[in-house]
Every structure is written in C-alpha cells, then in structure tokens.
Amino acid sequence: MANINQTIQSIESYYKRKIPSIKKKLFGVNLSDGIVYQLVMYLLLIFLGFVFIYPILYMFSTSMMSNVDLVDNTINWIPSELDFTNYKLTIKALNIPKSYLTSFFLVTISTLCVALASAVIGFGLARYEFTGKKLVFAIMIFSFIMPKTLFFIPTYQIYTTLRIKGNILAILLPAMTGQGLQGPFFILIFYQFFKMIPKPLEEAAIIDGAKPFTIFYKIAIPMVLPAFIITFVYGFALYWNETFLIGAYLENKFKTVTMMLNNLSAHYEDFISVPGMDKYKNPNLWFTEAKSFAGTLLSIIPLVLMYVVVQRWFIESIDKSGITGE
C-alpha cells in the first residue's frame, strides 16, 4: 500500500513539474513568445500575404499564356508552354524603354521638388511661431482631406492663364510650393520630425553665430533623413501611378508608361497595324487580357525594384516617424 501511495505521489509531482513547462512552451511567459501565439500570427500573415500576392500570381500566370491557352478550359494556372510573346508585343506597344525614361525623368524631378518644398515648409512650421500659423495648418489639412479632382477646374484655368499648361512647370510648380500630390501629408511628416529636434541644439548653433538657413541644412536636414526616404518612396509611387492630372495638365505631351497603359488596347492596335502583323493569320496577335496583364506587370516592375532596394531604410524610417500610430 505504501508503495502504491509513493507511486501516485511521484506521478503527481512529475505532472506538477511537467504541466507548467508545457504551458510555458505553448503560451510563453508574455504570451507573445509562445507557440500558440506564433502559430496564429504566422497563419494570419500567410493569409494576408496570399490576399496580396494572389492577384499578382494570377496576372503573371495569365500573361504567360498564349491566346490558345486562354480559351482552353483545361488550362487554369500553368500554361502549356512558357510564352513571352505577350511581353514582347506589349513592350513595343508601350514604347519601352522610351516611356520608362520619360516616367523616370518626370517622376524623379517632381518627387525631389515635393521633398525639398515639404522640408522647407515643415521646418518653418515646426521651429517658428508667427501670426496665422493655425490658419495655415487649417488650410493645409483642408487641402489634404478634399479630393484633388475638386480643385482640377480652377487649377486648370490658372495654368491656362499663366500659359504653363502643356509645360512641365504645370507639374513642378505645385510640387515646389508644397501643393504637389499629397504635399500636405509630406509636410506633416517633416513637421513631426523637425519638432523632435532638441531645442538646445538649435540654440547652441545660434550662439555660435549660425543663421537660420545654416541651421536648416547643416543641423536639421541630416537629422530628418528618414523623412526624406518616406517622402521619396511615397511620392515616387504617387507620381508614377498618377495619370489623370499629369495627362490633363501636360496635355499628353509626355507619354509615361502608366499613361500609355491606360490606353494600351489603342496603342497595341496601332502597333500591329503595320505591314507584316496580320492578326487574322496569327491568333496570338489578338489583344486579350493576357497582354493587358503583361502591361500592368511591366508598369509596376520599377516600383517593385525601387522598394526592394530601399525597403530596409524605408521600414526603419516608418518606424521612427510615428505615422503608424505609435
């Protein structure tokens, strides 16, 4: 009887020691380091990743199919053979690389103007007090939350009066005055960064004889480099994807790749209308969604490559900016 009691007690003591360790492994000390938490988080990330990646995979799979594969009900995801014809034809229809170079020129110079203007305005709002400052903030917030198309007609009339419509100044002028695409948003980002600069640092520079402009470019600018990264990445993507305003203000004198993508079917028909391109003899020459998807993927490749290069600094900048609600 004594041996049975000892055995029961040893089993109970074993499970008393084992259960807390199992519980610790499953749920962790702070919950966030437990197996259950990590499993739930990974499943959630896989689900969200699939939601974002699925359309891209579908577009890529379809863009690799010939027109014969598209009408074959037995082919869903994997084409019968790798066919780059859609990309070859779409590249010529989109006039790549010329449209790429036009896009890079227009987008890069516009984004740089937005970044510099936002930095100057954000520094002035963050470091100086002046009459009407609250009114400036109110107007800035108003222009940020209102749809940009609401200001299209008066802006178009102003550009016509200034005779800059159809000129690159129609895009650069608002960018240089802080009213480019999402300009108020970028100003607020710089405003937040400049507000975090310690006041004694600026006062020490003034004692040493530094002028406001010297303080701006020698002290303030180096301390807000993350804001420039955020502005450049966001601004580049915004200007790259903008077609309506750029097309209207420049009167289609600049043909960016996204502007040509908007009317890809017409550009494609013009391309295959030349002698030697008989779509009635070659079914693969007909315009289908495969060529439309190929053009879409070609238009976003530069954005993807840019993000791959700067993602490390971009994520760190987002972390420091506090725009995520931290």
Indicate the topology.
Elements: H1 2-27, H2 35-63, H3 67-70, H4 85-93, H5 98-127, H6 133-145, H7 152-162, H8 169-176, H9 183-195, H10 199-207, H11 212-223, H12 225-241, H13 244-249, H14 257-262, H15 264-272, H16 289-321
Helix pairs in contact: 2-16, 4-15, 4-16, 5-8, 5-9, 5-12, 9-12, 12-16
Outline:
The chain is mainly α and 326 residues long. The chain has 2 domains: 16-63, no CATH class; 88-321, Orthogonal Bundle (MetI-like fold). The chain has 16 helices and no strands.
Describe this structure in words.
The chain has 16 helices and no strands. The longest helix is centred in the last third of the chain and has 33 residues, at 289-321. The chain folds into two domains: 16-63, no CATH class; 88-321, MetI-like (MetI-like fold, Orthogonal Bundle), CATH 1.10.3720.10. 72% of the residues lie in helices and 0% in strands. Residues 322-326 have low confidence and may be disordered. With 326 residues, the chain is an all-alpha fold.
The name of the CATH superfamily of the largest domain reads MetI-like
Helix content: over 70%
Spans of at least 5 consecutive residues with low confidence? 322-326
- Radius of gyration, in Å, reads 29 Å
DSSP summary: helix tally: 16
Large-scale geometry: globular
Secondary-structure-based class equals mainly alpha
Tell me the domain tally.
2
Shape-level CATH architecture of the largest domain: Orthogonal Bundle
